[in-house]
Amino acid sequence: MRITDIKPAKKALSSVYIDGEYALKLDTMVLAENAVRPGTVLDDEELKELIEKSDYKRAKEKALWLISGRDYSKKQLMDKIKKDSSEETAEEVCERMEELGLVNDENYARRLAHDLIFLKKLSIRGAKYKLLEKGIDRDLCDEILEEFEVDPVEQLVELIGRKYSDKLGDEKGRRRTVAALQRLGYGWGDIKSALAEFEDE
Questions:
Q1: Is 133 in the same domain as 69?
Q2: At what angle do helices 138-145 and 105-114 cross, to 10 degrees?
Q3: Percentage with pLDDT > 70 across the chain
Q4: Which of 51, 116, 136, 192 could form an S-S bond across to 131 if both were Cys, CB 3.0 to 4.6 Å?
């Protein structure tokens, strides 16, 4: 097959025409690096290799752009990249990001767990659910959360005092408070103990 034309397209891509007809878009730099120009003759294997190189380059650039904005778990990053690339390419790119230290599930999980527990006041159980949701391995979740020594009743007393104490005056408000605390992953026993601190006020 012969490349008959290459035209600039959006987002650093080029439209490639084969044997007089539009065929596909490939990364412009990949075409230049591989000296592909009008008149170049390619076989199926060479075209497949160009497509893979283009896909990898686009996926890598997207990964770098994403992680420059915020932290991602490996699974989150892979899910984002898979929207525009093959699963195989997404996996390869994410493994490369991991090798470079740009994606680190352990560090990500530790920072996120800290914020969930101490800023958002989630219970250990609630924090574990969120970590699993972000694609963190279950064993790693358990290992990280063991580092956080938190008294759930103390957490609840602080949280109720800051956010819910004005809602405890009637049964409806109390029920809503209990429901909100349970959504954060706290058990009824701990909630009951914490609420007892406010009963004489």
A1: no
A2: 50
A3: 99
A4: 136
